[in-house]
Amino acid sequence: MRYRIAVASAVAVLGLGVLGTVSGPDWDPVPFAETIEVATADTTIGESAGTDPVGTYEVATSIVEVELAGTTIEARISEPVGAEGPRPGLVFVHGAGTGRYEIAFVEQAEALASAGIVTMVPNKRLDTYTTRERSYVTMANDYLRSVELLRRLPGVDPDRVGVYGESEGAWIVPVMAADNPSVAFTVLVAAPVVPPRQQAAFAVDSYLRNTGVPVEVLTAIPRIVGMEFPGGGFEYVDFDSQPFQQRMRQPLLVVYGTGDAAMPTIQGAEQLIADLAVAGNDDVTVRYYAGADHGIKIDHVLVPEFSRDLAAWIQALPASADAAPAVAGAQPYQRFRAAPVERPRWFADGDMLLAAVVAGWGALLLVPVIAAARRLRGHRERSLASGVRAPLVVMAAGSSLAFVSLAAYLLTVAWLAQNYERNDVFVQGGWLVIRVLAIAAAVAAVVLVSRILDGRRRGVPAAARDAAGAWYLAAAFGGSTSILLLLAYFGVFPALL
């Protein structure tokens, strides 16, 4: 009996592991073997003669209102005091999340204004921007209202107003600039370039590898990032900025920090150079700043050389548009290629996964409801045979704890990854705990089924002694099985493949 249960348990555990593996999709990112030739470590852009360095002027700020379709937003204008006009201008386009001028681009706007450039940081419009729904084309049209306002301000040269997009904003700026001569130049900082779904998979992979997670955890990337999310929406995750980039005719400054693990720093620059070439535009300048993060900061401080170079490049246009060297700074490194993400099969679509989670937990939560109803009716006798109670409890508790632990583990790992921290004891030990809990639940399921079948062969009383017991058994076993299948899908069980 024990030997049979041991063999059956091993088969069940490995079977769940194989099932999770073949359910797909797998995750096998392609190594990025290309590099980009950096001419020099000196990021200085062109000749600085005739340009005002950062810190030349005092800065005056004012708040203006920008009329958008259906609403009004505020924007902060930063101007150089005493600078002779007309001066170049720059509109900042926010990255992901909320964006207010009180906290976004404060250092950049101040530094550029002190060099003689009029800057504008509008508040991000949030009534049409949610996690589920957003349109980069609509956002581009909104930001163009800010461009037009800045072009009309006294002291601003309307023919020298450009846009600066960072992170998510780098998907918006190409839409603004394509076939649009009112945008004089463009700056893309930490540009994802590839569609959001591809960039998210690339970033998650990079972050998770930096935390040292087991390789099985990486298989969750396409299964989460690649799926259609429950309830629909999220169409923007497949937005492709390439057609717009191929119609950009303005001078472009591309900026990355070599410490930014979220972006394809080499692939992005190379694709932008190739895309602008389609439009017959070779006015692309690329700069890499050593150790700088996503916002071109080190220890939360904006890299001074970045401010210096950005100010000089803007002021020296059009001469700086093709000034040598085209690519300079620290040598970047990109381990894998950002590429299309394989979609999960129909049974692992977002709605199906959500249904499995709801069904599993709903069934398990039905057990205490049934127990409470029986007690209210005065029933105190046990509804399950003694031989099945223990394995059923272990199966339900083990699968539930494993699922909750997996969710907590992934959230904690995400926090570690975003903060560039490692905790090998938690990362490796936590994964081991999740596996032990899940395997214990699977073994308990085998013991439960074996005892029920063995009891039937020997003609002993049924596992469920009454209708309530049958509901207990069906709900706990069914709910636990659903959760075990979810755990298998996300790679918790080992597989010999």
UniProtKB/TrEMBL annotation:
Family matches, as InterPro entries: AB_hydrolase_Est10, AB_hydrolase_fold, Peptidase_S9_cat
One Pfam family matching this protein: Peptidase_S9
TM helices/strands, residue ranges: 352-371, 392-417, 429-449, 470-492
Domain of life assignment: Bacteria
Keywords, sorted A to Z: Membrane, Transmembrane, Transmembrane helix
Residue stretches making up the Peptidase S9 prolyl oligopeptidase catalytic domain: 138-315
One MF term in the entry's GO annotations: carboxylic ester hydrolase activity
UniProt name for this protein: Peptidase S9 prolyl oligopeptidase catalytic domain-containing protein
Naturally occurring in which organism (per UniProt): Actinotalea fermentans
